[in-house]
Amino acid sequence: MTPRRSPAGRRRQPVGLALAGGGFLGAAYELGVLTALDEAVDGLDLNGLDSYVGVSAGAFIAAGLANGKTPQHMVRLFIDDSDPALDPAAMLQPSASLWWKALGAAPRVARLALQSAVISGRRGLSASLWEALEKIARTLPAGVLDASAAERTLRQLFAAEHGSDDFRRLPSRLRIVATDIDTGQPVEFGARGFDDVPISRAVIASSAVPGIFAPVRIGQRYFVDGALNKTLHASVALNEGVKLLFCINPLVPFNSGAATRPGVIAKAGLTVILSQSIRTAIRSRMTTGLEKYSSTHPDARLIVLEPRSSDTELFFTGIFTVSARRRVCELAYQQTRLDLLERFAELNTLLEPHGMGLNRMVLTDPHLSLFDRQVRAPSVRRGRLGAATDDLRLTLNDLERRLRLARARLGWAAARRAA
Fold first, then answer.
1. Which residues contact residue 326 at a Cβ distance below 8 angstroms, ignoring those fewer than 6 apart?
2. 302 near 247, Cβ under 8 Å?
3. Rounded Cα gap, residues 187 and 180, in angstroms
4. Residue 355: which region, alpha, beta or left (left: phi > 0; alpha: psi -120 to 50)?
5. CB neighbour list of residue 412: distance below 8 Å, 6 or more residues apart
6. Bridging pattern class, strands 301-305 and 15-19
7. Separation between Cα atoms, residue 290 and residue 162, nearest integer Å
8. Angle at 232 between CA 227 and CA 234, to 5 degrees
9. The pLDDT of residue 325 is above 90
């Protein structure tokens, strides 16, 4: 990888971004974090990095950044629900074809199950029942949701405004990681030999959570969620020569310390138990990987950003309403600002060799927030006048934010010149 030049013309070491998965909740969290980084790290261009690595939900955001979409733009598209096609309810449609296929096979399997029960009846009712259930389970569909609507939406999104759905036409390296379900091995879409696959198709493959979505066929192979092997796949960027890597992982196990009552997770229901189990496995695996990088890539530096494990609101929030997605995104934005301020000296030491630095004026500005709480997202139900009014208010709100950030950056630049 050839290092790019800094604004001053000096060649700098490659900088990259690795984004983990986490579904729509994880995407909302990552967008909040990225917006905070974009505003608070002077010298950082999130649309001009050398390498992007995305897994599952992180694949969608990484592809958007590599295509020139700013974090703020994606917040407007995804979080504010100004584009109904990106609403989770619109993108998660039942897979009718798979269910019809399963129902068509049901009579034959029921007959085989009955035959099995009769033949093995002498072994006892319990054994017969389990054999019958095993045969019935084989008729269940490979997935319950259809991702074709999401794929069409992403294809249009990536190709809009001078973007591309072709890995080979991007100015930066983009790697979308998925898992070959037949071999269990990860595949890096965008790498040589896998760069002719449409980016939108690769994102859908990387996001195909087993049991929720059917394996995605690409060529003669079938792929599922890229997180099955690793959480971040940060090594993909490090192996390509990245020396500073921003890593965002939205999923950590919930633990509020002494305040956690025994049984608070166990008694919360199946979905919460599964969520905690997945988060625990993901975070444990990520910890192991990060520890290895210090020896396998000793000259590289990683900046890892995650939620706090005690964050009750983030852990128990749903994602099927605009208000919930806004809440998660705003929480991630404000928490990241606080974390960056608390780690100010440590992070500046890592950023300065790459021509970057944290802007204290931005981080301490109490008026900065992602959303104007008095403004609702534009809605056709409010009529043209109401939507136009909201558009104007959103535009004015964005303009005010940009002016505040511009003043802060001018102050940062002046301080650097004086130093």
1. 79, 80, 370, 371
2. yes
3. 7
4. left
5. 42, 357, 359, 361
6. unpaired
7. 36
8. 135
9. no
Question: Structure tokens of 98?
Answer: 């798979």
Give the contacts of 268 (CB within 8 A, at least 6 positions apart). none
Stated as kind and residue range, the H or E segment containing 17 is strand 15-19
Q: Return the bridge partners of 15, or none.
A: 244
> Position 204: which residue type?
I
**In this predicted model, what pLDDT tens digit does every residue of 294-304 receive, in sequence order?**
899 999 999 99
List of E strands, 85-215: 93-94, 145-146, 173-180, 186-189
What are 266-272's contacts with CB under 8 Å, separation 24+? 272/316
pLDDT in tens, 15-28: 999 999 888 889 99
Residue 301 in 3-state DSSP?
strand
Beta bridge partners of 86: none
Q: What is the pLDDT of residue 374?
A: 40
Among residues 249, 252, 203, 238, the alpha carbon closest in space to that of 33 is found at 249
- What is the rounded CA–CA span in Å between residue 287 and residue 2? 30
Please report which helix (H) or strand (E) contains residue 223, including its range.
Answer: strand 221-224
